[in-house]
Amino acid sequence: MDIAAPTPEPSAVMVQRDRKRVFYALVGAAGLVVGIWLAWLGAYALGWDMNALGIRPRDPHRLIGILTAPFVHANFEHLMSNTLPLGLLAALTLYAYPRATRVALPLIWLGSGLGVWLWARPSLHVGISGVTHGLMFFLFVIGLVRRDRLGVAIALLVFFLYGGMLMTVLPREQEVSFEYHLAGGVAGLIAALLTFRLDAALPRKRYSWEDEEAVPSTVTDDELEPPSPREVPVLWHGPRVRAADADNVIAFPQARHPRE
After folding, report:
1. Residue 170: inside a domain, yes or no?
2. Which of 147, 207, 210, 241 to pair with 28, CA 20 to 30 A apart?
3. pTM value?
4. For residues 234 and 249, is the Cβ–Cβ distance under 8 A?
5. What are phi and psi of 76, to 5 degrees?
6. CB 220 within 8 A of CB 208
């Protein structure tokens, strides 16, 4: 049996390309997080009423809220609760699927807002939680559809960290817009199904055992294979007559009884 040579390490070009993807993913996610923070801090410092930028369902004068509502948050706690999920999910999306993100992120942003405007409760809906739910559903579904190692790993990671978002698409608290969450999740699912072919799969590492040649069934004297059980002598069967080409079993000496 021939042992294949170890798989070579990734080339310098692949490493450099991967570092660029990480850099652009972090910069893009940071820009999105900084944008919602600047909008909130600017409105708070200048005393602006940001509620005018929220979504009021079925109000033609509030259609602008489909674009602006993700930048509006009710309070500081609301903003903080959306910051970490938005940054992490956006970074994972930009790193794993840079081409699909160009279509998926606008689709989630507009689709979640439009869904709220069409059928949500008659109230004021604000926050970027619809986008975060959309990104979570997008990463989970696209990983299952593509079935590559990176996609499945990210899908399992986001489900482990934010699997609880599956429950927040149902009505639980009066002051929480579950409609925004549900609309974002549906938009993320649709975006995953529409864009999962846009990004090529990363080069798959080939392991040495995949290159090993199959041993023919007729080979019986391979040096790496153990001997047949019938060829192994058994000690408790006692000594055997030595053959010309066989080993003999050495008998144990009888125990000596001490004198009385």
Report:
1. yes
2. 147
3. 0.75
4. yes
5. -65, -40
6. no
Q: Is residue 240 included in any domain, yes or no?
A: no
Range of the domain at 181: 12-195
Beta-carbon contacts of residue 252 (< 8 Å; ≥ 6 apart): 235
DSSP-assigned states of every residue in 2-39: PPPPPPPPPPHHHHHHHHHHHHHHHHHHHHHHHHHHHH
Residue 53 covered by a domain: yes
Task: Please give the angle made by the CA atoms of 175, 50 and 47, to the nearest 5 degrees.
Answer: 120
Q: How many structural domains comprise the chain?
A: 1
Q: Any idea what the CATH number is for the domain that residue 173 is in?
A: 1.20.1540.10
Per-residue pLDDT of the chain (260 residues; tens, 9 = 90+): 444 444 456 677 778 888 999 999 999 999 999 999 999 999 888 888 888 899 999 999 889 999 999 999 988 999 999 999 999 999 999 999 999 999 999 999 999 999 999 999 999 999 999 999 999 999 999 999 998 989 999 999 999 999 999 999 999 888 899 999 999 999 999 999 999 999 987 666 666 666 666 555 555 555 667 777 777 776 666 555 555 555 555 555 666 665 55
Question: Cα–Cα distance between 213 and 109 in angstroms, integer?
Answer: 52
In a domain, 95, yes or no: yes
